[in-house]
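Form 7-S
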Amino acid sequence: MRFAACSNSAPAAWLPLLNLTPANVIDILVVAFLIYQALMIVKGTRAGHIVIGILIMVAVYGIAVYTGLEALRSLLSVIVPYLALAVIILFQSEIRRTLARLGRKRWFARGYQRPEFTEDILIAVRRLAADRIGALIVIERDIGLRTFIESGVRLDAALSSEMLLAIFHPGAALHDGAVIVQRDKIAAAACFLPLAVGPTVSPGLGTRHRAALGITEETDCLSLVVSEETGRISVAAAGVLALGLSLREIDERICAHFGVARSAGRMNEQYAADIPMEAEQNSERNKPK
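Output:
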């Protein structure tokens, strides 16, 4: 009789699984996806340790309730209700960054409207890299950069390689800081940007590279950085920094970031791919024989 009871109860335990509807399956998958994305957001950041601390506190509260530890339960019952407010305060930068990334994907709007102006940017970047002049160029996409534009000197000038070279010329008044590009105009120069300070940021990065990375963590822009020490060109987007790219790779990343077809490739044919190598070759040619 006992064996029969066990055999009859076993199928009953699987009944909830057998009664799953497509809506239940979709619901479970969506919740699992959201949990996974939340874990990916805090992974490798200081927020991860805070989440672990909050989970430990909630677990201790549950244990106190289950075991009847009234003194501990009373103490934690005062603290636990304020955890939601603490999460908002502690994770405000992560929450802002996540909400900004949700709006990055374009569904109905067209991409970068004037991709032909990338050629002017590439010409300027090539010259700056060859001369090892430090530069930081930020290209706006969907999320406005008005706050950062107001931190610098407003220009509203037509975008051209000559203008970029003049701005970043050593000793120029607007050399320090970032240039912000809006479509076919240079909106401002000498702008201050937030620095990336997360634990995943390499300690070897300078202020210019940290600024390029920091602005892309908060907005959907794309940043170009020229190192004044090595002449290396780097690109930052979506909180990821790619170091030492060629003109061809930069052109591809700009087009991919702004959702347009790749440009005709005149830049790629006209100039060498490896900027630091090209600078070294030019120096070899100019040596007296």
